[in-house]
Amino acid sequence: TIDIDTQQRGPKVSPMLYGIFYEDINHAADGGIYAELIRNRSFEDGPRYGAPADMQGWTTDATAPSLLSAKLIQPSKKAPLLNSVQHNALELTVKASKDSPVRLVNEGFWGINAVQGRSYHLTFWAKALKYQGNVKAMLYSHDGSQIYAETMVSSLSSSNSKGWKKYEATLTADGNDPKARFALVFDGVGQVQLDMVSLFPPTFKNRENGMRPDLANMLWQMHPKFMRFPGGCFVEGQESPDNAFRWERTIGPIEEREGHWNVNWGYRTTDGLGYHEYLQLAEDLNAKPLYVVNVGLWHGGMTPYDNIQPWIDECMNALEYANGPVTSKYGALRAKNGHPEPFGIEYIEVGNENNQPDPNQQSDHYYERYEQFYKAIREKYPEMKIIGNVVAWGDDNPKWNSKLPVDLLDEHYYRSPDWFAAAFHKYDSYDRQGPKVYVGEYAVTNGYGNLGNMNAALGEAVYMMGMENNSDVVELASYAPIFVNENDARWRPDMIRFNSSRVMGTPSYYVQQLMPQHLGTQVVKVVQNNPYKDVARKPLTPKQSRVGFGTWSTHASFETVKEYDYVKGDWNKEGNIVRQTGLKDATLCIEKNVIDSDHYTCKFRARKDEGAEGFIIIFNYVDDKNY
Ligand code: AHR
Fold first, then answer.
1. What value of ipTM does the predicted structure carry?
2. How would CATH label the architecture of 11-30+204-526?
3. How far apart are CA 170 and CA 156, in angstroms?
4. Whose CA is nearest to atom 1 of ligand 1?
5. Disulfide-capable partner of 365 in 305, 455, 464, 564 (CB 3.0 to 4.6 Å)?
6. Is 255 in the pocket of ligand 1 (CB under 6 A)?
7. Which tens digit of pLDDT belongs to each residue from 551-598?
8. Residue boundaries of the structural domains of the chain
């Protein structure tokens, strides 16, 4: 039972408490929420960072004599590409005909989701060189047996297109296939160069260059109050500052975005989901944007801390783009990109996990860096809430070891369910006069299973309740990470799992959806009459049971069961198989039973069957003698 005394009030609950942390990890953006369907649309992708581009995602389904060659070309003085940010384009040399056309095929991100009645918007850039013929577009099944959509785009001829020209068409599918292919079909003779081939389905809130509606809806249903972006390690990048998120190269027409290697998470990003789109997405979700800036550090390198003015300028320009008037340089750019009203950033985080004790962990003179950013931001935006980094890995009580002013501190916890449950009281003792807390990343990462599980979700939920009780200190919180494309998981667990056509939330996702829907405004006094303790001292009534959860890396946790007055008796014999059910289950054997007048101890031997994630033990009341 729980007694509630509404007259005795505790802290007010932060109305901003629950938000989301978006990072381009596990194909969260390209091949994820960013709705683009063409993989390697600009022919810049290679197998890995540093390797040359290799046409991945693309094939041709014709051979000589209709196809003479399909190769990547690089810019030259004589023949520049579409613009200066393009490093590659595709050049097709064909001798095709209506009866023997050449198809340039794209497989999408592990398939293109063709949906009956859905219209797709195609754009691409082409340059015809001594070419005469047509170009068609189509959506069809991977084995070519079914065509879902086909349309004539244009006739192409070197006489009517001297330079690069943009083409557009609409394809409407008449069948369903989550693994469909896209093709441009050529029936002419000559040479054609292609770049930035893009295909979009309808998007969330019908935004141009927008988001996949089913994935964005999952975020929408969480009612996030803020959205932290663009990472995570994605902010920092790896190997080179070119691989960090540099906001200025992520805005404007998509063909003018260079894209960059997301080395941290092992694939190239188009930056199609760029700074403007992040701000727009936050706005479309009714969430306040929380921007994380790079302080001149990337995984594997840094700009010396006394030379970081260019990084500060980059940050201030980003803020002007988001918040400045249309009369300012970057405010005008925002207006030009379709959003004259300021986006209104109110929270900014200075660095991501950059205040680690060991400088090899992407940290170097963090406080010196922070101070310079702090001064610049505070001077121009006195109301802005500035978030500092504290130790992110391995420290349960990270501290701000500086006198520098800071509004919030970003704590990160990836721990076990037990750790989170025990952290219910973590914030009870935090200094009420100190900085507020932003729990920027947290998730059960130990004993979770690939798809998450109830135990993980419960651990997180208990922790969240502790945050709510202490929401005068904990102002913001966000689970991490959000998304994973099941075809290329780089981090587990993630709360939303998807492929080209389907999406599912883990139990953790549903906790993240549930808690904000029931967020109160103020804590009231609650006396919890520990149900376990009281019940344990009384005999259980039939059908009552106690449940323990175990994982392969921890012991089963039965804290509540400890309280029982165990009844002696033949509970089970050593060596007995307690439970063994079908595929992906565990086998538990009783190894040792020790029963004395006060305690019952049972040691299990567990065998992990393939795919088993853990075990659940249920003690059922049987009668007044046996459990
Ligand atoms: O959430 C995944 C990663 O964990 C983030 O990129 C980083 O901030 C943290 O280390």
1. 0.99
2. Alpha-Beta Barrel (3.20)
3. 17
4. 481
5. 305
6. no
7. 444 344 433 333 333 333 333 444 333 433 333 344 455 555 554 444
8. 11-30+204-526, 58-200, 538-620
